[in-house]
């Protein structure tokens, strides 16, 4: 828990994220060198690279970074909150609720902009439902929250299966891409990034309280941490981050589970370093994964969720083996 | 004028669900004292300990910590004056022993403050006091149950409290470590002018190390000097098992008759 390695780790991951941005903006069917990219970003140079960078690649890159960062941060928060290293942002049923909202909007043939709106509404409804059911007598209990989330998610899963069975053939592909997680049409450019920054600004002042909470509710309470309020604040932040991420890119798996865990294996579990490090690492990972998703089968584009799983699983297994 | 008691309890009634743990209880703990809470399983020992430590509100009565009523202190102020060892703790995440003990400094640091060299020194001294200084870089999850208990107690010492509330501090420890730990806690209380209040299951450990006792007997709680309360008659009634005192060099030892 000495300062320098923690800040160094965060700085290195921030640099990696920056490099991932450079890669994402330069790579594509028309490759652009870094100088052209920089000039295009500054509004200089030819119209063609400017259009490619500013209108196509930058919005997608920003959405990818914010989505990955949000999922990783939400995962880190929930793993501490539930004291379970296997928790991921979807244990609260948020992605299931969002999927039902989005797929229902698609099935009803609603306007394109209503699909993310449906996703966000579904995510929000699911969060409120899990919160209300888990709160019960008012006492905070990780087990109760976890179980409620898992059961509600299972319920959403059934509704998703129902919607898929009812859907006409022509819509199935779009629905499937949404379920796997896809960044080809992010509904907003800057909003997810602003939400991520705000959530980080709210969570970081409580990071040391979270270190105490990681040791258990009883120990945290004895150290003066408010175990009546803090868990619900963290729950709300994690739910908001997940809802925005799912609305932006669908239900991308693995980032929220694996990134915080992998970062923890490398830098330890001090939340003051872990939260920003996980956000940078998650953002960078999704950015790289999305760049690969655009390239691997070009001109066809893969849903990024496939790539995150294909990268995430072996990387995680290697890290886990190194730890033992 | 004498110094205020570290803990002053008046008219305390504690209830949990249908159980009345104690009714109208009054006692005070002075610096240097070592108290044992004794009672059968389910008598409410942990509940009473948590109430006295300010982790749950009493049904009635006033608990004052160093002269200030608990109800008027913030959780952080309370945490700077008293520490609590829970009955069980398990670590879900990997962390070094030193990191784990440093968490005890939490109430002394402001929101944006990081642990200083002084905090590190305090944590290392606490580890040394618990005789586990050599393990500071180890992962807490690889420790034995007894080592883990000593690390948890070191985290409490790093908190620098005036009064320690311990729930079965000797659980998971072998006999030698039980004796060493309790002797050390009693010595700490006496030399450092701190007080210790602990739930114990072993009557003989209480006799050996504690100068005061709190007996929980179905709502009829009694508090007072160990010499008065820890007698064969009272303990036999408390546990519902006939006990007899056997004289030894160090005083009486209680054995089932």
Can you summarize this structure?
Chain A is mainly α and 324 residues long. Helix content of chain A is 76%, strand content 0%.
Describe the protein in words.
The complex is a heterodimer of chains A (324) and B (257). Chain A has 324 residues and is mainly α. Chain A contains 14 helices and no strands. Chain A has helices at residues 3-26, 34-41, 47-81, 94-107, 114-135, 142-166, 169-180, 191-203, 207-214, 217-222, 230-249, 255-267, 271-295, 304-323. Chain A starts with a helix and ends with a helix. The mean pLDDT of chain A is 87. Chain B is α/β, with parallel strands linked by helices and 257 residues long. Chain B has nine helices and twelve strands. Chain B has a six-stranded mixed beta sheet with strand order 6-7-8-3-9-10, sandwiched between helices. A four-stranded antiparallel beta sheet of chain B has the order 2-1-4-5, with helices on one face. In chain B, α4 (117-129) crosses α5 (145-158). The termini of chain B are far apart. The chains are: A mainly alpha (324), B alpha/beta (257). The A-B interface holds A 1, 3, 80, 83-85, 205, 208-209, 211-212, 214-216, 218-219, 221-226, 264-265, 268-270, 272, 323 and B 53, 55, 74-80, 83-84, 86, 89-96, 98-100, 102-104, 106-107, 109, 111-112, 114-115, 155, 159.
Helical stretch tally of chain A: 14
Share of residues in helices of chain B: 25-40%
What integer value in Å does the Rg of chain B equal? 18 Å
Main sheet specs of chain A: none
Report the helical percentage of chain A: over 70%
Note the beta-strand portion of chain B.
25-35%
Biggest interface pair, residues each? A-B, 29 and 35 residues
Overall shape of chain B:
globular
Q: In terms of structural class, how would the helical and strand content of chain B be classed?
A: alpha/beta
Instruction: Enumerate the spans of chain B where pLDDT stays under 50 for 5 or more consecutive residues.
Output: none
Low-confidence stretches of chain A: none
How many β-strands of chain B, per DSSP?
12
Q: Distance between the terminal alpha carbons of chain A, to the nearest Å? A: 21 Å
Query: What would the principal axes of the Cα set say about the shape of chain A?
Result: globular
- Structural class of the helices, strands and pairings of chain A? mainly alpha
H/E element order of chain B = EEEHEEHEHHHEHEHEEHHEE
Q: Which strand-content bin applies to the residues of chain A? A: under 5%
Mean pLDDT of chain B: 91
